[in-house]
Model the fold of this input.
Amino acid sequence: MLNFILKRLGLAFLVALTVSFISFSLLFLSGDPAIALAGEGATDQDVVAIRELYGFDRPMLVQYASWLVNALSGDFGESYYFKLPVSSLIADRLSVTMLLGLCGISFALLTAVPLGVIAAIRPNSIIDRFALFLSVAGQAMPSFWFGLILIVAFSIKLRWLPPSGTDSWRHFIMPTVVLGYYAMPAIMRLTRAGMLDVLSSDYIRTARAKGASEMRVMFKHALRNAIIPVVSLAAVQMGFMLGGSIVVESIFALHGAGYLAWESISRNDLPTVQALILVFSMFYITFTFLADVLNAWLDPRMRSS
Amino acid sequence: MSQNNFRQDIPLLSIDNLTIDIPTAAGTLHAVRGISFDLKRGETLCIVGESGSGKSLTSLALMGLLGKNITPRADKMEFDGVELTTASARTMRNLRGARMSMIFQEPMTSLNPAYTIGDQLMEALTLHGSTNRKKARARAIELLEKVGITAAESRLSQYPHQLSGGLRQRVMIAMALMCEPELIIADEPTTALDVTIQAQILRLLAELQREMNMAMILITHDLGVVARVADKVAVMYAGELVETGPVDEIFAAPSHPYTRGLLRCIPLPGKTKRGSVLGTIPGIVPSLVGEVNGCTFRTRCEHASPACRGTIPLHTSPTGTHTFRCIHQPEDLETDAVQSTGANA
Amino acid sequence: MTLAPSTNSVDPLLQDIVGPTPGQQLRRRFFGHRGLMIGASVVAVLLVIALLAPVIAPHDPYAQDLLARMKPPVFLGGTWEHILGTDHLGRDYLSRLIYGARVSLLIGFVAALISGTIGTAMGVAAGYFGGRTDAVVTFLINVRLAMPVVLVALAVVAILGGSLQVVIGVLGLLLWDRFAVVMRASTLQVRGREYVSAAQAVGASTPRILLSEIMPNILNNLIVVITLEMAHAILLEATLSFLGLGVQPPTPSWGLMVSEGKNMMLFEPWLVLIPGAVLFVLVLAINLMGDGLRDVTAPENRS
Ligand SMILES: Nc1ncnc2c1ncn2[C@@H]1O[C@H](COP(=O)(O)OP(=O)(O)O)[C@@H](O)[C@H]1O
Ligand SMILES: [Mg+2]
Done:
């Protein structure tokens, strides 16, 4: 188990390193970042001055190394647009995104797991069909459109919920639903498939032969085994969701890290964009790592090996 | 006490005309048809028959463990006076694991991989009243020792994947015995195990059955085991009980052509040459989907005649304990059997 | 001490299967699969509409008419002149929707082709050669999954400028992960089969084995993933365009139309509802087709 964790940690570290390099290289995608930064109508002297100021005249790998060293100590440079340290900008915005992500994944799990379980217990029933419909529709639903529909329905027509902002918990309801619905189909399908698989296994028959009640068979014996892969999927989805928060946050004007990403991308604020890509990747890497460890711990076969 | 004595006389299990139909895409599969037998306390019934003959379905029906879409029908299926076909889910649950237990064919997959051996053993007890964990634990250790597992106490915290198939089947046996059931059903408990372990497990089962005075239904392919442990034998073929009776009578005077075929398949010490192929019965089993009539063994029977398509009479021996279903009288078959044995040799 | 061989037992399910030939079965499953049929029909209709856009579209999708701005659709009291009304610049909404189908399908198809080529090459190499190649590919898949797609795509489009080519290129270079994962697994499965060992034994060259032994046997999985990733690319393009960093105006893209309609959403919600609904239907149909193809070509995987 310890061996597994160390190996997995090493992999996570390598992935993080590679991602950091890729997000750093984005700066050079436009050709000369100094020209891009100087903007139109800048003189050659301006460009040279900027190049020296930001150290763009050094070899790329040297620049990467110094960026990385700074990044490791929490210094992502200064935002071109906001003229503030990128790290403090992001730190200010992250809590909203984290809260949103947490709400989203909770919503997804709380709807998808019960639906998946019921669908598996009663295959082809009305609930099964409804669950299938929800998941098929969810996979095809453009989340920006879904968000706008909710705003039209619940903010404009019914006037139940505020269309934007972060002032109260009511502001988070629609964003949570939109973000959670994005993760729901996959979780539901996996829960259903896992439960169906487990329910036909021999040890479920054994549990029934012992005289266990159906409830006990479903929850203590079946779900405990079927949930193991769902846990890691949920973590992966959580990582994807934080990356996808940019859409939801821009629709509902939630001033989180996703909204910041949208603002900084629109304004060519590359240091902020680089840092955000790295931060979101780190979240994904951390979540998948934790999922793998949790998974190994939940499965006795892996725990003891 | 007197009541107990009275109960010794009436059968613990009494089945009359058990029928199991399974709906399939191709039509109704008449998997089990008109099975009847009785079992007294402490008695052992061995069910033999080739795979697919409905042995597992019959035992699952007794336990109330058939799938949702399969409903068994019977004129009578009583366990100690409780009619099982009409019993509520709760009644069945209270019987299962407490008064009747079952051991399955696949020890590798029959234990829940997520829980320890101890948890699973103790659950069998706590499900039926006893909530005292300490007592349950002591009982689990006692039974693990009884089924011949060493270092029983430390095994309690192990997970199924840490045990070999033979050990897992011993755990399954221990689990089935946790509540001292009156009936134990063992469905080919050793088929999935190594040959060397098979004999040990069967011997263990037979010993425990005698020691705890349980009734046992043992499904097995091993006719040697049948000869040693059975009180009664039931021979199943294509969903029907073709012959049933006390073990001595079945072995001494097998009456149904299928039973004769089976018994011919046993290698006899000294008589069967090493490496010689076991006798098999050639032919095809008819489909049980849709209408089934007459004797289903006629496609493979050396005595088959057009009359086998009609109604098949049930012969009962003078003692009333040995029955078989065939259009021929046992005497008719005697001569043929001698001939065919001769031809076979 | 066995009894008669089990070949004698009758499996009722087997009897049912022995009947028709594999080809007949495949056809029967194909046409009998409702989701697949519905999905394929809708996709076919939209494809024809996209191809025949110049013929079908009632108006020029770029022609502005500032005197006829935001005319409602006919079912909301508009005229038959503009069946689905007009947008904020007075352009015919139906015509823009029809041309938008071209953009969506083109982007989806080409992006899936690019990412399919990359992902398949990586996946097959990893599955076939194993060892270090596999380790590298698996690592690259991990790296790719760790990058937030929308963010990276937005950033790259913002840097390079939003044009159809850039959007297609970015999506093509970003969406290869599922191809690599699935193709790797399928190749691993096929690699151990006898015909591959046989080809290796007679000394067939590696490219030959890959092309004539491996590829034909993983093709059905590839087609399924192409379908599903096409839907994915279409959704992503719409998202990028919605956020203003995809296809640029005045190109008619459904995502862009939703974005443009957003500002008038309070009074004219249909401006948002219609293009989004069409996008939803197209993606839904492609997904149904992909799921259906998976069911039909791999019956043992049906849940
Ligand atoms: N759930 C089921 N659905 C369809 N057919 C079944 C099912 N269970 C058993 N059968 C069929 O019923 C017959 C008897 O099965 P079984 O009782 O398992 O035989 P045995 O235990 O004697 O080998 C077999 O032909 C088998 O294919
Ligand atoms: Mg069986």
Summary: The two ends of chain C are 38 Å apart (CA to CA).
